[in-house]
Amino acid sequence: MIRSNIKKLNEIFISLISATQSYPFLSWLDYSSWVKRINIIDEEKLPMATFDRIFIASNIEEEDLQDNPDRALCRYEFLEILVRMAIAKYGTT
Question: Are 41 and 34 in contact (CB under 8 A)?
Answer without folding.
Answer: no
